[in-house]
Structures are given as C-alpha cells and as structure tokens.
Amino acid sequence: MQAMIFAAGIGTRFKPWTDKHPKALALVNGKTLLERNIKFLQQFDITEVIVNVHHFAEQIIETIKKNAGWGSVITISDESDEVLETGGGLKKASWYFNDDSFVVLNVDILTDLDLQTMINFHQQHKPLATLAVTNRKTSRYFLFDENDNLSGWRNIKTGEEKISRKSNALVEKAFSGIHIIDPKIFSLMSQTGKFSIVDTYLELSKSQTIKGFDHNHSKLIDVGKPESVAEAEKLFV
Predict the structure, then answer these.
(1) In the chain, where are the structural domains located?
(2) The whole model's pTM is what?
(3) Most buried among 3, 99, 168, 230, using CB within 10 Å?
(4) What is the pLDDT of residue 55?
(5) Which stretch of DSSP H or E encloses residue 178?
(6) Using CA atoms in the order 9, 155, 87, 207, what is the torsion angle rounded to 10 degrees?
(7) Among 15, 82, 30, 17, which residue's Cα sits nearest to residue 52?
C-alpha cells in the first residue's frame, strides 16, 4: 500500500516557527512531524510515500535527502508555484498511485490509531473513501447517518450546513485528517486547480459511499499551534 502526506500548508497558526520553516519540520521531542508520520506508516509496512511541498519546500526536500527518507522511498509532489489545498494537492499527485487503495495523512496530526484495523474496515466495506473520525469537540464536523455513511458537514460556529444525503438521524463526528481512498476517486473529481478534499467528499457522497471509521480510544493531537507541541510531547515520546 502507498501513502500521501499533506505537507504543503503555509502553517499560519504555527507562527513564528513558520516564518522561517515549514510546519512539517516542527519538532516534537526532537523528531519532526514529518519523520514521525513516515515512521507511523512504517509500522504498517507502508514505505512508499509521496509528500506534497510548498512553504519552504527546499527545507523539506533537503531534510528527506539528509535522512535518506528515514528508511522509506519518498517522492515529492512540488507545489512551489501554488499551494493547491488538500483536494488539488491530491489530484496533482494522482499519477503516483497504483490501482490499490492508499492512505492519506495530514503532517500535523499525530496518532497511535491502529491503521491496519482501519485498512481492514476499508477493504471489507469497499467504500470510495474511509475517513478516521472521533467524538472530540471541534467547530466543524462531518455528518454521518446511522450506517456511518458521510451525509453532510456542519460548522457550529457559523451555523453553515451542507447536507449531501437525507437521513433522519445525522451524527456529528470530528475528522482526524486520516483517509483511505480508492483511486477511482480521481476519475470522479470534477474540481480543478485549488480546492478542498472536503468539498469533493461532500459532492461525491451524494452518489458514492464514503464511510466513517471511529477511533475514539486512540491518542490523537492536531499539532496546529505552537502551544500544541507541549501537549504532543506528553503523548508521543
């Protein structure tokens, strides 16, 4: 199985570090977020990884070369000219993937999720995509029906809501930034250029099955702000 790590973000919330460095190279107990996610994937025998880069791209590329990919074969998807967000970044890297489903991770997410169990779930149900979710508090939620099928999205701060499937009982679940995706998604994507994968999922969920995978008992932290580092260092040695 192959994987992609989203590492192209500008990291506005992670200033002042991101004034001079990419967030992917922020350190948690002496190891970069990128290294930690590469080694997380290795635990599940995933060693072929494509990483998209934009903000201080050369620093990421140099670090990967210096460390020989930490034992994995890493390919770069260069978005130096324009950051394409999650959907556009994934579409640009579509050439990399073979005919098997693949894993996608956000570089600033650290977790001890049992990825093999999630892979088994995906292979059993055969959806277009499986999204790791938990019951944690956030401001934006995916909405799932009683069968854990993606059915919408809600921003509880603004009240904005997008419903893609009708259901009598929609449940809010927080997305963990971890996906398993069938490559046929590329033939179904209508957007081009810069766009969010969230919009793609909401549009495709009208006609395709996209599943939620609960991992509430896993450690999980979004290292999105500098103050998150101290908390992450308590969870991940």
Answers:
(1) 2-131+177-214
(2) 0.96
(3) 3
(4) 96
(5) strand 171-181
(6) 170
(7) 82
Residue 127: which pLDDT band, with cuts at 50, 70 and 90? very high
Rounded alpha-carbon distances, angstroms, from residue 120 to 38, 123, 127? 20, 5, 12
The span from the CA of 152 to the CA of 162, in Å, is 5
How many residues are there in the chain? 237
* CATH architecture assigned to 2-131+177-214: Alpha-Beta Complex (3.90)
Q: Give the span between the Cα atoms of 73 and 64, in whole angstroms.
A: 10
CB atoms within 10 A of CB 144: 25
Nearest CA among 180, 232, 237 for reference residue 26: 232
CA distance 232 to 210: 30
Paired sense of beta strands 171-181 and 140-144, if any: antiparallel
Residues 202, 151 contacting (CB under 8 angstroms):
no
